[in-house]
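Support reply, case 0932

Customer input (verbatim):
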Amino acid sequence: MRWGRGFDSYFGFYGGGEDYYTHEHGGYDMRRDKQPNCGEGCSESAYEARGKYSTTLFTEEAVRVVQEHDTDKPLFLYVPFQAVHAPDEVPDSYVKPYEGVIADPKRRTFAGMLSALDEGVGNITKALMTKGLWDNLVLVFSTDNGGPIAAPGCPICGDRTGANNYPLRGGKHTLWEGGVRGTAFVHSKLLALPGSKASGLMHAVDWFPTFLELAGVDPVLPPGFPLDGMSQWSMLNGSAAGKRDEIVHNIDPLHNVDGPMKRGGGGDAALRKGDWKLMLGAPGPPDVWSADPGINDTDTDDAMVVVETQPDHLHERLHIAVATQNTTVQLFNVTADPREMHNLAAENQDVVKALLSRLTDIASSAAKPLFSFGPPDPKSNVKLFNQTWTPWAEKC
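Our regenerated output:
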């Protein structure tokens, strides 16, 4: 629950991939919590939102929070828009400017969804300026993953929205750079070098300690539980290089892939260390490259991806014995080869072994996932709550 994470209010939905207008995905899902620790008798379904486009709803809520804010107090505003996630839905007025410009209908709708989002961000920006908060503000705009793309024979590409990850390989659901390399920008009058590019490594967990440093807050942590993230304000502000040289992209103990990360039923894993990126198991699908949208925009679904002529060794799989187990291993220098076209594992076995050792050490201290593939709790059935998703557990 968002109210259990330090927020004073919450407006949004619990699930994912729901309809932008009806706000249904197996049941109605849009809630409003008006105060901290808003539990039974306080948290309520926002039925008044039914029929209204979610990007507009979230914009209006964010603007309201800004307008009602007491400027003598600090403000942290988190606005995770539903756009541009599937399903492909947007008012026609946002799509019309792209008719005759973008041939692919899915990409045309995607552009409309993005325009609606852009308008929403602009309205929030205007509200912050009007409230007098703009001069002492840090605004972060960031994606959460690469765009979902189509690929021949891909069983998990049903959420493709017209996104394009050119020139990177793969997309959402994958460990390829098209799935894990995100785009972001930071705006603030506090920045010493506005308009500059920060090229150091940064993980999503770094935002929390970065914001704490900006706010002048030292976190109080329980013994034995240090933060995974590190403040990157000095890098973003242009005064120092990034502090991070390592990112654990994934360690998956749930899916059935053999290898040193198996741990009873998993295997897919990826580690970035400096220029190197090690991947175990199956990084995709989709395992393709997006086409250049400026050159290959057509009205055919398959034009969204292009499988290029590849060097013969691209799909070779190096099998290295680690703890008496074998697994698919791939190694890329993603600084020199961000498109991940050349698997260098065979000629860099010393690097592979060092990164495998590091990944195994990390996996040994990983907590057991709370996620379960078991059947849903029958007490959560929306039929018990007027076809509405709602909290049902008395104790977590």
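We compared this against your earlier run and they match. Two observations from our side: DSSP finds seven helices and twelve strands in the chain. Residues 257-266, 298-326 have pLDDT under 50 and may be disordered. Please reopen the case if you see a mismatch on your end.
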